[in-house]
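Supplementary Data S3. Sequence and structure tokens for construct A.
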Amino acid sequence: MNLVYSIVTTVIFSLGIQGVPYSDIQKSFEKNSHSGIVAHGQAKMLINILGKEAVYSQSQAGLVLKGFFTRKPGNQFEYTFKGKETIEGAFAIGNYTSKNEKFRVTIHFKKINEDYKIESLTIEKT
């Protein structure tokens, strides 16, 4: 009976609880996929790219990120820090490389229901 209880509990928790989508976002940066990033965002996101900051809807944020990836295409992204997941949210810092330029990416996530959604994303030159 304990085995059945353990299996059921594991299945329920694995289906119901989503962690921070670190891997999806990393792959999206590596593929220059603006849509892959905004898919993990809130309905409204604060985007700051190279000092230009504004609150955008998902579709607007996608256009802004698409423009950045068009100007600064890259294929390398790695996290330098992943914050602890809390009931409020989490944050991460990573490096995005475009040709011979490096950018620091800071992402703040907000926990909404069981999902972590991007609340703000900052890209700045290092």
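Construct B, processed identically:
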Amino acid sequence: MQKQNLRAAQINHVDNGTMKIQVTSAVGLIPVEDAKVRISYTGDPESTLEQISTDAEGQSEILTLAAPPLEYSMEPEQLTQPYAEYTVEVEAEGYRPVSIEGVDVFSGELSLQNVRMEPTEVSEENKNIVIPANTLFGNFPPKIAEAEIKPVDESGEIVLSRVVIPEYVVVHDGTPGDSTANDYYVRYKDYIKNVASSEIYATWPDSTIRANILAIMSFTLNRVYTEWYGNHHIFWVVE
């Protein structure tokens, strides 16, 4: 019943958004041509909506998909989900299949979904990715409390005497004291882009989006400088 309700809610959307897929190899970042892409409603994997192939650049055509009305994402107290969620499944000869659940599509906006595929000779596992809900709509635990002013001692190894723009950040995917959580090397630009995508809506006015991204950049660089970032621990890496 839950799947039926989810599908009905998406089918009854009166607006449309668009989606484009970019498929590249995880080794060498070369485009993957003729990858088979299947689009379905998240929560109803049998609901095949589109089946397409990538071109020589590893890109799909632009697909038009149902999305909730624009006003849903423009009202702060809106209780109705302001975006539709789709699942993207990709298969290609010589590569491990990839499934990405929860790709957001907003009214009037183009969703760009990058897909990295592992060659079969370097990986034995299929990749299944689940994108969590946007932080403005989903239910998440409160941020870890922190002191407004924290002492910063220059170690000469990690903390610098000035704020720098890093090439990479190392994101500890857990609380600072959780030694079991994984560490990930992420390009600084990609980190900012991914945080923005999960914390604001693409339908907002351009000036609002820019202001929020500048705030995210400032907050991240502050945490790089102090080695402290709420629920994640971040270090800087310059190449």
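Residues 168-237 form one domain. Residues 1-6, 229-239 have pLDDT under 50 and may be disordered.
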